[in-house]
């Protein structure tokens, strides 16, 4: 029984970075930063990403590579007695639900990408970009077909496996994503009035510091690295034993930081140049950004590039969310991969239909006071992700033997016992404490 593997360390890093970057950085980070005051939020976010986030990322890497198993079996192999494997099940359920509504956003992006060829997105007939978004999302057929198309694109890549599918796609998509971001960033920074957007994004105003700023930044750090659902446990289980885990983790984090900076420098200067509000929430890229591009020379071309970037970012995250479910189901039997990928992918699509209809046929149907899309988002983002992150940190810190942790963490690395001691302190005490604070705030705050 031949288990698939990454063809190279760079392939693993790009795929892991693609999973981490995704909509968490490209879509969610700019609007959360806009809502939380810009520079101060971003400053705290970067610090937490490189400390608490990195420590948990390394914990998932250690668990995955040491066991060579995906979600469920990785926990069962370390702790065969007890119910610790439920952490993997929580991760699979969270990934299933997350992709069910995440793919709906992927469908919206697919629709906007297709419509970018006509130019009527940047310059709608009545000039109302928000109304155009409402018109699109209220059409169940258009968004339904786009939703299905997005899921089929995801399935077609994942069914080909780790090396020939996910790695190959990531090796092409991630460099393309950087190039497109660079083009958009340069164009944005050369606009008149762009400097104010740079200041808003990069200059911290510590007088605006509140508890909310810290808590939202920590939550964003976990979201931006795909932590808490065992995605990185699954990806690292295919990694070569001689690869340096700290080096791989820092590569993923630094790529995430770089993309976060590029995203901010591509979006906020353009918003300020055209006097657009930065605090428009999740609809920032669907209503405000098209309006910005509509005022640029060759705006349709730049908007096309922006939506292509969004599509690449969304797909690279979607690959990992399906893979975490497929890996435990096939248990190394690659001949089952194609069938299971299609089954899982179509089930996720079916689960996403109510979320897709939340803005049309089910717009008047509420669950706990929220439309179905928002209810699933709340369940995953506010409950399952923090819970999964907490349980993973506690499992690695207290159920894995200290000598095994040290050996796995430092294998292939030139780092020594001091680094291991600092990481162990982080994963045993600081990271769980931060997660518990965020978890209780999200639930009871």
UniProtKB/TrEMBL annotation:
Protein name, UniProt field: NSS family neurotransmitter:Na+ symporter
Localization terms from the record: Membrane
PANTHER family with a match to the protein in the record: TRANSPORTER
Xref: SUPFAM superfamilies: SNF-like
Bilayer topology: Multi-pass membrane protein
Bilayer-crossing regions: 12-29, 41-63, 84-109, 143-162, 174-195, 215-238, 250-274, 301-330, 342-359, 379-398, 419-444
Signal peptide: none
Principal localisation: membrane
Domain of life: Bacteria
């Amino acid at each position: 029984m031949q288990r698939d593997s990454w063809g190279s360390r760079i392939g693993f890093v790009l795929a892991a970075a693609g999973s981490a970057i995704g909509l968490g950085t490209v879509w969610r980070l700019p609007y959360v930063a806009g809502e939380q005051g810009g520079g101060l939020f971003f400053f705290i976010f970067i610090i937490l990403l490189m400390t608490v986030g990195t420590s948990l990322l390394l914990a998932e890497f250690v668990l995955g590579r040491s066991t060579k198993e995906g979600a469920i079996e990785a926990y069962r192999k370390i702790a065969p007695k007890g119910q610790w494997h439920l952490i993997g099940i929580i991760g699979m359920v969270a990934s299933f639900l997350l992709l069910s509504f995440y793919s709906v956003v992927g469908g919206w992006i697919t629709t906007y990408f297709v419509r970018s060829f006509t130019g009527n997105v940047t310059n709608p007939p009545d000039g109302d970009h928000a109304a155009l978004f409402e018109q699109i999302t209220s059409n169940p057929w258009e968004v339904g077909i786009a939703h299905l198309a997005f899921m089929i694109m995801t399935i077609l890549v994942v069914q080909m496996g780790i090396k020939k599918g996910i790695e190959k796609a990531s090796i092409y998509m991630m460099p393309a994503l950087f190039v497109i971001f660079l083009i958009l960033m340069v164009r944005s920074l050369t606009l008149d009035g762009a400097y104010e957007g740079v200041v808003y994004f990069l200059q911290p105003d510590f007088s605006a510091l509140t508890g909310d700023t810290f808590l939202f930044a920590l939550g964003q750090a976990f979201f931006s690295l795909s932590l808490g659902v065992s995605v990185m446990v699954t990806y690292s289980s295919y990694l070569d034993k001689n690869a340096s885990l700290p080096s791989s983790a820092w590569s993923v984090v630094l790529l995430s930081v770089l993309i976060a900076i590029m995203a901010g420098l591509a979006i906020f200067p353009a918003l300020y140049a055209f006097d657009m509000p930065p605090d428009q929430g999740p609809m920032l890229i669907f209503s405000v950004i098209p309006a910005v591009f509509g005022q640029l020379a060759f705006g349709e071309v730049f908007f096309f590039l922006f939506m292509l970037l969004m599509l690449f970012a969304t797909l690279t995250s979607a690959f990992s969310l399906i893979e975490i479910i497929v890996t435990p189901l096939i248990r190394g039997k690659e001949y089952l991969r194609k069938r299971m990928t299609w089954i899982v992918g179509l089930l996720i699509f079916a689960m996403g239909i109510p979320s897709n209809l939340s803005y049309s046929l089910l717009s008047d149907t509420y669950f706990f006071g929220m439309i179905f899309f928002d209810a699933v988002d709340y369940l995953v983002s506010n409950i399952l992700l923090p819970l999964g992150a907490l349980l993973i940190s506690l499992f690695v810190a207290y159920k894995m033997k200290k000598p095994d942790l040290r050996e796995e963490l430092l294998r292939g690395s030139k780092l020594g016992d001091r680094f291991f001691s600092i990481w162990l302190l982080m994963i045993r005490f600081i990271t769980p404490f931060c997660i518990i604070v965020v978890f209780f705030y999200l639930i009871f705050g």
